[in-house]
Amino acid sequence: MFKVNQGRNALLALVLLVPAPSIGVATQLYILPGLFGHLVALLSKIWLLVVPIVWLFYVDKGDLKIQFAKGRDLLAGVGLGLLMFSIISIAYWLLRSQWIDVEFVRDRARQVGLNSLTIYSVGAAYWIFINSLLEEFVWRYFVYRKCEILVPSPVAVVLSALLFTIHHTIGLVAYFDWRATTLGSLGVFLAGAVWSWCYLTYRSIWPGYISHIFADIAIFMVGLQLLFG
Could you give the CA distance from residue 185 to residue 204 in angstroms, rounded to a whole number? Predict the structure, then answer.
């Protein structure tokens, strides 16, 4: 009975959490671009953080324990991060002229207010250092662990990566054609699988967070080149 209830709770947690970022991205980019869309996206971010914390305290009856990064965490994070940085940079260098319509990307960016270098820089700093930490907490510490209750660990790695990819794909569609969107979605899925595997292996979000920083730096360098280069 306990396992049944645990599985039911895990599924409910995923149902409450996973659609939120997709709703935020879709509203911001397609349904109501502008102030209201930004507000919905912000509320979805808040929901994404609040649900795991409330669930941890009031459903799981647990607590948040802050663990400092160990040497192995740093080594794994930097190694994987440099690899991800290199792959993203090389892929962009090889495919940018054939697969990316720069003017279309810039026009879409203007529609959501990303045509200012100052705004872009502030947003990049937030996404690289803060949002990546929040994503590791939400998608690895919370979502992966809930998936692990429902399915075996290797399957949970794949499932959590798929769930992590959905809202990123919705965002990519707004800026790129099917080829770049497919490649970008595959990259997000593989990165999500690697970060979930890191959590499975180390039981720590630090390797994922550190490598996530490197990946986001590469992504925002690409965005800088596309929008302002």
Answer: 25
